[in-house]
Amino acid sequence: MRQKVSLLTVTLDYPETSTVDSVAFTDMRISDGVLAALADMGITSPTPIQAETLPHLLDGYDVIGQARTGSGKTLAFGIPAIEFVDPRKKGVQALILTPTRELAVQIGSVLEPLGKRKGVKVGLIYGGRAIGPQRLMIREGVQIIVGTPGRVLDLLNQGILWLNEVRYLVLDEADEMLDRGFAPDVEKIMSRVTPARQTALFSATFSEWIRKTIDRHLNDPVTISVDPNPEDVPVIDHTAFELGPVAKIDALKQLLDNRPEGSTIVFGKTKHGVKKLARQLELAGYPVAALQGNLSQNARDKVMDDFRSGDVQILVATNVAARGLDISHVGLVINAELPESSELLTHRIGRTGRMGREGQAVTLLGPEDAAKWRQIERGLAKKIQRVPWPGSGVEINAGEPNRRQSSQPRQAGGDRQRAQAPRVSEPRQQPRPRSEAPANSITSSEARSDRSRAARPVVTVECSACGQPARIRFQPDPSRPVYCQDCYQAMRPDSGHVRR
Is residue 162 located within the same domain as residue 22? Predict the structure, then answer.
């Protein structure tokens, strides 16, 4: 490894998501096998963060890389990992730590094809999966481990995993990895890796307490910060609606009825709250799935696969979906409940407006959120527009609404209609049909307007459960079941039954 130089900080000012035409992967010390793998993946030119960090990493320097999610950080630290390991050795030679299972899977999906041509094995270690196969994988030999701190530390303590041969260590989403919750486990893991290593920290943001870890564990790092030009910053229209007496669930449904083209993420605060909210929306007829920590890993993987493919259009999630996940077709983010900090709010909002597309974000503020919102606002670089919730309805994008009954899955990364900012408007003449839902709320509930009910035509259908005639006041979706009042009551959220 080369002798390190004194601390160097490089700040670059160009769009993160672009490629750098003047620099090519072939100009760097990258092997033919990795170059061929990049070509197979359709990647021909490096992004700015890759162009600036790869030469330093390939030369053996410690690096701190700062750029937004979606800028190409995975390849920036992944290419050196593939290049540094010796496929003839069975031991773990590179370790990549990441805060969530979903991020571990995402990183693994990039590194596995990259290392295949060189015979490099990439293994995933995270909780929620049986530990037996992970033990076997390590014993049989794997050169690169991508894992979450809890399971990595567990295998270390069991004597199954050894890090004495690790010469390359990466902390992805480093600000969260070194947060007060993760920090003890991360510190223990880093102390088990030989000091004669190269260390890289990558993140979209860096908090103050990270500096202490940098001083202890990095050797004169090169700092690369990719700052986009103002005109290249993602265009995200963010509005905070003050609801007053309006129930959050009613406002949320109105937003979902008029959501823009693309997928939608609804953020809640707790695992239980997200599960309950997803049940309410599912029973109301919305194409929704929940992502929260209590799900089994198989269930989490299924939810993410369905959301990426577009089979599920609305994801209700805790902050587990707020960081790192790179899904280009998210057109709208809704904060049904506030996060703990302004940093988390920024990461949530960053799930939309990706790959040069415009995005929209809405935060719903009930009377109980006033103090917390003031605290969050103080930490934001930009003041968010606050407006009262319009009693006459909210229109989120122009044109025809995105029909819920469509069975055609949206393809991830496809072109999307550019959405306009949320604005007060007259109610749509043809709102999206959905099954009649209970008037439950995230916080409180109010009965629907008798006048609005009376305006709906009465339709007689056959109950999908008992086969008896049922009278309903909405236009049923032929692709979804419809229930009589008795069967519907049996499937309310408090009954514990959820349609799948």
Answer: yes
Range of the domain at 500: 449-500
**φ, ψ of residue 233 in degrees (nearest 5):** -65, 135
Q: Please state the separation of Cα 357 from the chain's center in Å.
A: 17
Identify the three-state secondary structure at position 98: coil
Q: Which residues contact 208 (CB under 8 A, 6 or more apart)?
A: none
| Length, in residues, of the chain | 500
Structure tokens, 66: 């700062």
321 belongs to a structural domain? yes
Distance between CA atoms of 166 and 144, rounded to whole angstroms? 9
The residue type found at 67 is A
Number of domains in the chain: 3
Question: Which of helix, strand or coil describes residue 314?
Answer: strand
What is the structure's pLDDT at 383?
81
Domain boundary among 409, 432, 447: 447
Instruction: Please report the pLDDT score of residue 237 as a whole number.
Output: 85
For Cα atoms 382, 13, 21, give the angle at the middle one, nearest 5 degrees: 135
Domain co-membership, 457 together with 350:
no
Cβ(333)–Cβ(360) below 8 Å: yes
CA distance 348 to 439: 27
Distance between CA atoms of 202 and 65, rounded to whole angstroms?
Answer: 5
pLDDT at residue 405, rounded to an integer = 32
Which whole-number Å values give the CA distances from 152 to 159, 298, 464, in the listed order? Answer: 11, 19, 48
Half-sphere exposure of 391 (CA within 13 A, CB side): 3
Helix, strand or coil for residue 456? coil
Instruction: Please give the model's pTM, rounded to 2 decimal places.
Output: 0.55
- Mean pLDDT for each consecutive 10-residue tract of the chain (500 residues)? 39 44 81 91 87 94 83 91 94 94 88 92 91 94 95 95 95 78 87 93 76 81 73 70 89 92 91 92 92 82 87 90 73 91 82 73 91 85 83 40 34 34 36 41 38 47 72 59 69 44
Task: Describe the crossing of helices 73-84 and 101-116 by its angle, rounded to 10 degrees.
Answer: 50
Residue-wise burial string across 210-227, b where 16 or more C-beta atoms lie within 10 A, e elsewhere: beebbeebbeebbbbbbb
Q: Which tokens in the block code for residue 69?
A: 């999610």
Rounded to the nearest 10 degrees, how much is the dihedral formed by the CA atoms of 34, 36, 41, 46?
60
Single-letter amino acid, residue 291: L
Q: Which residues make beta-bridge pairs with 64? A: 201, 223
Phi, psi at 143, each rounded to 5° = -90, -30
Distance between CA 272 and CA 254 in Å, rounded?
A: 23
Distance (Å) of CA 147 to CA 151, 213, 451: 7, 19, 55
